[in-house]
């Protein structure tokens, strides 16, 4: 029995050192390297290529290093009979809520107006709307979406939320199901996407959605690149249907240097960094799941492969 690791380089040696320290009795291999393929029964992986797991016939537990798992499920060779777990905790949700609040305030308070005026040395006074007059709609009510709604409501925004199933959140108007989506979008001025990527949500950020929003709305998407129909976003921005878009996740990453999002005056690009799990969170969650796996206890944050999250 042994563990295979393929980890994000952004953590340097901290992540692998933390895993080794937390699981001192485990044999741990780092990829790429000299790996005993048949020994591997646990793998913690960051965005492995399709078919990566085929040479490891004895894998019995797979762990993501974050909350997103759609790239695993897009692999036609992914072993669907093997439990897949992910990293989701309060800290992860709080970081996402911080990201959404930052950009909601940025657009609500029209920061680009003042930055442009300063660059031009213009005293460009502008009356600001109250948060209570701004309707923010959040799509997705998992742990991150729920906390984001609560924090937006605390700041005084008129918050509504949409998800597949019924939810109740104090101070938030909740909508559920496909049939409720048009009503949810009708008054949503700032649309926040925190949905999981599934067959039903792929391509949801496209013309049909934007046309149901008030003219001049704003898009903030910090979920998965597969939600975007990129040409529809550009068309909506160029027509004025959308006034701005903050985008953190893209169908192709890193975003190609020639992509029009980089230079569009109303697009704000961030490099898929809206909510990076802390090293301690990844280590603690993974180590606990390994211990549970070895003892036969229920796993933390196990993915429902049928639902896609």
TrEMBL record:
Protein name listed in UniProt: Glyoxylate/hydroxypyruvate reductase A
Record key words, sorted: NAD, Oxidoreductase
InterPro entries: D-isomer_DH_NAD-bd (IPR006140), NAD(P)-bd_dom_sf (IPR036291)
Higher taxonomy: Bacteria, Pseudomonadati, Pseudomonadota, Alphaproteobacteria, Hyphomicrobiales
Enzyme superclass (EC): oxidoreductase
GO-annotated molecular function: glyoxylate reductase (NADPH) activity; hydroxypyruvate reductase [NAD(P)H] activity; NAD binding
D-isomer specific 2-hydroxyacid dehydrogenase NAD-binding domain: residues covered: 105-274
Tree of life domain: Bacteria
Enzyme Commission numbers on file: 1.1.1.79, 1.1.1.81
């Amino acid at each position: 029995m042994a563990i295979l690791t393929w980890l994000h380089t952004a953590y340097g040696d901290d992540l692998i050192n933390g895993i080794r320290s937390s699981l001192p009795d485990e044999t741990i291999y780092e990829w790429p390297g000299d790996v005993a393929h048949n020994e591997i029964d646990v793998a913690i992986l960051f965005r492995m290529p399709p078919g990566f797991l085929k040479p490891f016939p004895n894998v019995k537990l797979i762990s993501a290093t974050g909350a997103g798992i759609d790239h695993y499920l897009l692999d036609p060779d992914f072993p669907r009979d093997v439990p897949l777990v992910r990293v989701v905790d309060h800290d992860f949700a709080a970081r996402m809520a911080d990201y959404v609040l930052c950009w909601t305030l940025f657009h609500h308070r029209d920061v680009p107006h003042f930055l442009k005026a300063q660059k031009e040395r213009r005293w460009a006074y502008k009356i600001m709307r109250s948060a209570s007059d701004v309707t923010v709609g959040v799509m997705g009510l998992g742990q991150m979406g729920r906390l984001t709604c609560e924090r937006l409501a605390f700041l005084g925004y008129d918050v509504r939320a949409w998800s597949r199933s019924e939810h109740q959140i104090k101070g938030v108007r909740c909508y559920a199901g496909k049939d409720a989506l048009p009503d949810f979008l009708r008054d949503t001025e700032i649309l926040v996407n925190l949905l999981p990527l599934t067959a039903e949500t792929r391509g949801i950020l496209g013309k049909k959605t934007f046309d149901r929003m008030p003219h001049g709305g704003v898009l903030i998407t910090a979920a998965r690149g597969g939600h975007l129909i990129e040409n529809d976003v550009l068309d909506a921005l160029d027509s004025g249907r959308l006034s701005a878009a903050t985008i953190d996740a893209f169908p192709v990453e890193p975003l190609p240097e020639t992509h029009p999002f980089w230079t569009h005056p109303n697009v704000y690009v961030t490099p898929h960094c809206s909510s990076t799990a802390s090293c301690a969170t990844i280590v603690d969650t993974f180590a606990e799941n390994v211990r549970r796996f070895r003892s036969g206890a229920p796993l933390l944050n196990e993915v429902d492969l049928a639902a896609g999250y």
